Amino acid sequence: MFFSRLAVGATLVSQTLAIPVTVNHVVHERRDFAPKTWIKRDRLHADATLPVRIGMTQSNLDKGYDLLMEVYV
Question: What's the count of helices (H) and strands (E) in the chain, helices before strands?
Fold first, then answer.
């Protein structure tokens, strides 16, 4: 009797935890396709500068530089 109650309880808990949670993501810019005039050729020069915009939440602004440098290395 105890085992069957425990099994039912464990099943309910596992099903409750398995429910997907909706996360709201915001897409600021989107490229639906690459222009046909783009041709993959050589690598960029190591000193080339590419403009990049990164959207972060307010709570992570102080960590932005450190996180970027982790990816850069």
Answer: 2, 0
